[in-house]
Specification:
With 238 residues, the chain is an alpha/beta fold. It has 7 helices and 8 strands. A hairpin with a 6-residue loop joins strand 7 and strand 8 (207-212).
Length: 238
Amino acid sequence: MSRRPISRTRRSSGCSTSSASNSPNATSCASGSGKSTLLRIIVGLEKPTSGEVLFEGQPIRADNPQVAMVFQSFALFPWLTVEQNVELGLEAKGTLSEERRRIARRFIDAVGLTGFEDAFPRELSGGMKQRVGIARALAIEPLLLCMDEPFSSLDPLTAQNLRDEILQLWTNPELPPKAVLMVTHSIEEAVYMADRVIVLSSRPGRMIAELEIDLPRPRNRKEPEFYGWVDEIYSLIV
């Protein structure tokens, strides 16, 4: 099995990093290491006990419209339709009704839910619900999209199909965002989706490695190079 030289891995006892434009990034570590908490701090939903998070040189705010988040549990309002759920961020920004509708329908179409605009969450499958969450996040056209284990509540086949669809969305220059940060406990998922993987240690979560995944796309899980990366990240975590 192919392995990457460990000299290409940058180690750190802290948790200091940055996200570049046009780059999907993933954070991977064992369960309970604080990766979801770190993500919530990055988007401004929680305050760090020390240090700071900067967005374009300024301290992050929870109401920053240039940062959006996709939640693990879908986080849809059950009394709202698909279109109304997608419009929520736009409504908070003060976008006018007709413009909200136009933008919402654009991103509903982008995630493959055309025809379900008037459906309620109870009428949707798990994969469809997560598509609504993704459309809602993209509708505000964020510069940074954060995703908290977005596929963990889905069955394996649905999760893989949605991963591939999201990768296609990310490669479309006409669609936001400029950068993506996803947390996952699945090493294979991190290698499959990300250009850069940040590895955290177990409690307390510290950044122990940062790896540039230089595999060509689309990535083949059966290639030795793919599992070389998986093996290296696994050895760092355990």
